[in-house]
Structure formats: structure tokens, C-alpha cells
User: Fold this.
Amino acid sequence: MSKAASLGKYAEQRAVDYLRQQNYQILARNFRWRYKEIDIIASQNKTLVIVEVKARTKLYFGAPETFVSRRKIQNLVEATNAYMDQFQIDWEVRFDVIALHFSRGSWEIKHLKNAFNAI
Assistant:
């Protein structure tokens, strides 16, 4: 497994642990539809929460959350629609980003709720 893949798996597990501590129910991890993927699908109070996880060990090129592209957002929306159709869910949807970066010997977690709207 590559260093980037290992970092990604670690970050996703940290994000899941964080969400559980915040009383979110984890519905799915790494949901795939066609060539699109949702890192984490969670729920809280009848809201479907779609979570994109971004992690960086260094901030040379910017904060992790700044790496969610317009194309990635479109892919998340399409995969979310497929998930909702597949499981017949008719809830409010929210798109969040959980950003992790290594700083001063430990990982910092930033949870950006409503990070973007469906376009």
C-alpha cells in the first residue's frame, strides 16, 4: 500500500471515530457508484451527511479542505443521488468536509459542516 493510501485509510478511520464521538450514525464507508466514491455516509437527526475526508501531513500547498474540487463536488452529488435512490432515502442532505493535518506532533481535526451546496 502506498504512503498516500495508508494516510487516506488512517484519516478516514479518524474521521469515523470523530463522527461517532459526535453522535453520528455511520451508514456506509467508501460507497462506490460507477467511478465515483463517497468516503463516509452518516446520519444525524434524519439528515443524511455526506463526508469528504482530506488529510495532509504538511500544509505547503494549502489546507486539506481546499483540495475539494468542483468536479469532486459534482461526483459526490451524483453518488449521493444514487445512494438515496438505492436505499429509498428521502432526507435532508448535508455535505461536510473533515480535514486532518499533522501539526506539532499530533493530528488536528477540523469539521466543516455544510462545506458546499449541491451544484
The first helix runs from residue 3 to 21. The two ends are 34 Å apart (CA to CA). Helices lie at 3-21, 70-86.
